[in-house]
What we know:
- The structure holds three protein chains of three kinds.
- Chain A has four helices and three strands; from the N terminus they run H-H-H-E-H-E-E.
- Chain A is mainly alpha-helical.
- Chain A has a domain at 6-44: Histone, subunit A.
- In chain A, helix 1 (6-15) packs across helix 2 (22-39).
- The relative contact order of chain A is 0.08.
- By secondary structure, chain B is an alpha+beta fold.
- In chain B, the strands form three sheets. A nine-stranded mixed sheet of chain B has the order 3-6-7-10-1-11-12-13-14. In chain B, strands 5-4-15 form a three-stranded antiparallel sheet, with no helix packed on it. Chain B has a two-stranded antiparallel sheet with strand order 8-9.
- Chain B has helices at residues 7-13, 64-76, 183-201, 241-260, 306-315, 320-331, 335-343, 347-355, 360-368, 370-378, 389-400, 406-417, 423-430, 438-451, 453-460, 467-477, 484-495, and strands spanning 15-25, 62-63, 80-81, 88-91, 101-104, 111-119, 125-137, 141-145, 156-160, 167-173, 213-222, 233-238, 268-273, 278-284, 294-295.
- In chain B, helix 8 packs across helix 11 (389-400).
- The termini of chain B are far apart.
- Chain B has three domains: 7-312, no CATH class; 318-430, no CATH class; 438-495, Arc Repressor Mutant, subunit A.
- Chain B is elongated, with a radius of gyration of 31 Å.
- By secondary structure, chain C is α/β, with parallel strands linked by helices.
- Chain C has one domain: Amidase signature (AS) enzymes, CATH 3.90.1300.
- Chain C has 17 helices and eleven strands.
- In chain C, strand 7, helix 9 and strand 8 (298-302) form a beta-alpha-beta unit.
- In chain C, helix 2 runs antiparallel to helix 3 (49-64), helix 7 (221-231) runs antiparallel to helix 16 and helix 8 (249-256) packs parallel to helix 16.
- Classes of the chains: A mainly alpha, B alpha+beta, C alpha/beta.
- At the A-C interface, helix 1, helix 2, helix 3, helix 4 and strand 3 of A face helix 10, helix 11, helix 12, helix 13 and helix 15 of C.
- Strand 1 (63-64) of chain A pairs parallel with strand 2 (62-63) of chain B, so a sheet runs across the interface.
Amino acid sequence: MSTINADEVARLAALARIDLTPEETDRLAGDLDVIVQSVATVSEVAGDDVPATSHPIPLTNVLRDDVVGQTLPLEDILAQAPQAEDGQFAVPQILGEEQ
Amino acid sequence: MTTLVDYDDAIARFDPVLGIEVHVELGTATKMFDDAPAHFGAQPNSAVTPVSLGLPGALPVVNGTAVEYAIRIGLALNCQIAETCRFARKNYFYPDVPKNFQTSQYDEPIAFEGYLDVELEDGEVFRVEIERAHMEEDAGKNTHVGGSGRIHGAEYSLVDYNRAGIPLVEIVTKPITGVGARAPEVARAYVSALRDIFRTLGVSEARMERGNVRADVNLSLRATPDAPLGTRTETKNVNSFRSIERAVRYEVSRQAAVLDAGQSVVQETRHFHEDTGSTSSGRVKSDADDYRYFPEPDLVPLAPPREWVEEIRASLPELPALRRRRLVTEWGYSEEEMRDVVNAGALDLIEATVAAGAAPAAARKWWMGELSRTAKTSGVELADLDVTPQHVAELQALVDSGRVNDKLARQVLEGVLAGEGAPEDVVTARGLEVVSDDGPLLEVIDATLAEQPDIAEKIRSGNLGPMGVIIGAVMKATRGQADAGRVRELVQERLS
Amino acid sequence: MTDLTRLTAADLAERLRSGEVTSVEATQAHLDRIAAVDGPVHAFLHINSEEALATAADVDARRAAGEDLHELAGVPIAVKDVVVTKDQVTTAGSKILDGWIPPYDATLVEKLRAAGMPILGKTNMDEFAMGSSTEHSAYGPTRNPWDLDRIPGGSGGGSAAAVAAYEAPLAIGTDTGGSIRQPAAVTGTVGVKPTYGSVSRYGLIALASSLDQAGPCSRTVLDSALLHDVIGGHDPRDSTSLPEPAPSYADAARAGATGDLTGVRVGVVRELGGEGYQPGVRASFEASLDHLRAAGAEVVEVSCPSFSAALAAYYLILPSEASSNLAKFDGMRFGLRVEPAEGPVTAERVMAATRGAGFGPEVKRRIILGTYALSAGYYDAYYGSAQKVRTLIQRDFAAAFEAADVLVSPTAPTTAFRFGEKVDDPMAMYLNDVATIPANLAGIPGLSLPSGLSDDGLPVGFQVLAPARADERLYRVGAALETRLLAAAGGAGVLADAPELETLTDTTEAAR
């Protein structure tokens, strides 16, 4: 299994959009390395013939009728926004692109 | 300035391969995963619930009608419908994605392995192989404020989540090969055929200009059809048929220039610019595109029962291509005539006209003749003219019964188009009926013959050559309201 | 006069019904108790006196008018701060949600309100329910009423401590890997994690969607059953909600309270005991097995070999799902927004700065771990394999439930440990949940009730597990054991041995 070093933590933190201090990065690299070594055993336990379980209780086809319900009042949702303008959420300039 | 290779030159030396992803917004009453309305007015953030706003604690529930629509689309595209499929989370951070993941189908789409036969304007048919059709949700809308108004110059953005969660079906083709110089046409015809199908199925209003249907066009070039696929670019959100054609042409020319210069095409998304017909570089695909897909734990798997799928299949309306084939036979049109009808957008109009009682040939004559000219002159669509198929059928009935002749019929139509009412009303109001009572007609004929004794004599002696002169004079005297055939008969009777 | 805070919920409900006391009196008594002891205990993050008393007054008025009320109408309750409450601050123990007022109620909160239960306030927890000690709360830890230097368990230490300290007769917890049962064990209280889907997750701030389940916290088995009856049932807003109607769990608890378990097969899980379990915990567990035998139960041993991989699977599935569930906390729509200290202020950088400043160390650790486990190239080895382990654990349970009607184990390997003992050693902290995690992975229900004291004088939890959708077995067996333990102790529950907390002198003044 691979090890987790500070560079890997920095890559993951960027992917997870979390600013880390250099100290946090080093600390996490140490922690995660131990954890990953401990949890790596899972790949040895189950063979290819074992199906994956994504939901503990097997249910299928839970569908909703296409009927309009209650929407949230605008003032309620914008009251909790860090910044709002013209009935919309104001966010800092967006540099990236839609995916 | 980007250098371009002339399109024909590029096509002569490179083989283009297309791949098209079409997103269609479904016309359901509510969103994909919550009961917020999917149709809304101008007020931003008025159509949101805790779910579509991605608030902590909110959970998704799948819209059953959206699933049915997705199955309809899959069946119409000759796809297999999955025995079981799931939703997954596509994780990426972007302010218009409220949960910072999009709930989408990933490795288990609801429909897969289909095809669509696409007919080009000259009648040639291309089969486009469909890889998959899957369900997902739309994102919100950002409005960039401040600076130059473009993304990069904006100081901040305003986000409206009304669109967030609108159900989408994304249809992905396999690589479309063997199209050669016709790549732009095929791309256009494919998206156009899809649009017609969406409308026929009733799953979407499918208005390109409103963004109900959005196309991402992938294009790559290779030296020969035997060569492996080249590096592709993905031109995003090309939202009109004409733009699709232009974007493909542009990318062929641009990529050819890149390859000619000995460089490699960069795998990236590109933006299409309506004003210049060009594309510009967007986001480069990179290792950072790690979406960390995993099965959506908040939704359970879908296993559309086979009986349901068959029920949906049985209830599918006749699809556009089949309908055309049927109507060619029923109406006795030539393939070419039918293609013209379809291209002119007259198919529905003619079908309705025939249904209202007109003969197919007559219906085609009106819509493809007089009415097409009028539409062209006024720069509107046929369907937007102030005349209904019912009007046209009535008009033709007037002709068939002999109450008006062709010339009068055109005047009646003029009246209808001018908003003077139904054909019958125009006939009455303008007094356009053919004079069918022989009495008044004979008076005119007698007077005409009396005025032209020489010609009358010639006819009487068996020389029918100058007959036209008499008929013309009678018609003139009756302001065209006489039936020319009847005039001829009466003249002959009088002079026999 | 009776101290209303010492009554069980069932007793209090009876007195409310008979008109002996009013809900306003009962609610005020608990608010007074909170004012008196919650300073050091710190079970509550937000206290909700005004609304609780208004609800109480409304219930009293409706009762006076002869209205037919719910069995628990007027009985006050505390709610874990991971459950959203309309118009009341909900933080999930995190700075990133400091001051957030949700515009909607969780389904279970709607049910509490419909039943007329005054909500006293929101209880403390490890940030986003990540932890086993409440030391990871951004607002300071909750202290164990048995010993203020010790942890109350976690993540739902606040709910357990509130019940143990008589600040509330009932509380709502959530259990992703033991967050209801382990705190119950170390505080000498009862806690139940229902079958996955028994209680709606709509309005629970998600930690790990496929593991989370809300459930009751109380001082008696019957009280938990009564509360489970209130909050359970199908919810069309939760796709994973069980569709079928649930039986009465209170009836099951009352049936068990006779103390008779004749014909019931009790399976002792070999892998959940022995090495790593404190001797005093093992002794208490063995004594309880004797009580069960005396009640007529047949005690057998069962083996669940795949449980050895449960912890590893859990610490891959939980962080993976959490890394995605917690992505929405980005400072764009609600909650904290922090701008980067330097450089351009872009959405991307504000998100990262907000999450860097708003999340505590354990949350960051798990998000990064989950991001790693899901990232390209690792998915199959980690998340994919963990999901397979889940299948193996379900198979182990299925086989074990062939041999036994319920399975039992100590709830936690140790009694309450001291603050700071494990906070810097994540793996040691994670081992606390070794006996509770398998139930979450398999979706089955589990209950913890106090079985007595360890040799260190601290309470020990006894865990009962049942097959999925057979929650009633927990209540029947749990209530039977409770009856036998009470009888053996001369009628006094385990909590009777807890030291009295120092109270502020003028409690009435402090509450006002």
